[in-house]
Amino acid sequence: MKMQRDTRRAALQALYQFDSNGEDQLDMIKESLVEGRESPGSIDDGLELARAVWERRAEADGMLAALTPDWPTHRQPMIDRNILRLGWYELHCVQTPPKVVIDEAIELAREFSTQESPSFVNGVLDRLWQQRQAALESEGTGA
18: which residues sit within 8 A by CB, 6+ positions away? Predict the structure, then answer.
């Protein structure tokens, strides 16, 4: 699935709302995205992506927590935690080049989070990718 920035932006906004209100508020989430600047196609694709990420959040959180022992997932700002989940999903489940995933996550952090967040997101996702790459190489599959 080739993703555009608007799709990622919509997915992040949906993930944030899932995290704060629960996934059962899907109609409200879609309505709030329609009021934003995303196109209808980006909204639908973003919601599909958000659902996929949300379903695997426990797996993502476990791997991400191992990389941030001093900053556990439950203490991370909600937006950062969901940027990391989205990045984790793309690195592990989608055929998006790692550099693109990390760059896009940094841009989302710049747009939606604090001044410190882009470097935090960059560091965590870069370490996550290095771990993934090492695991793939040890399995002999490369990437």
Answer: 29, 50, 54
pLDDT at residue number 1: 44
pLDDT at 103: 98
| DSSP 8-class letter at 75 | G
Q: pLDDT by residue (tens digit) across 53-62?
A: 999 999 999 9
Residue 70: phi and psi, rounded to 5, are: -85, -5
Alpha carbon distances (Å) from 84 to 31, 105, 131, 139: 24, 7, 15, 25
DSSP 76: S
Query: 64: pLDDT confidence band, cut at 50, 70 and 90?
Result: very high
Calpha distance 81→72 (Å, rounded): 10
Rounded to an integer, the average pLDDT of 38-53 is 87
**For residues 107 and 5, is the Cβ–Cβ distance under 8 A?**
yes
Could you give all domains of the chain from N- to C-terminal order, each with its CATH number?
Answer: 5-139 (1.10.940.10)
State how far the Cα of 15 lies from the Cα of 21, in Å rounded to an integer. Answer: 10
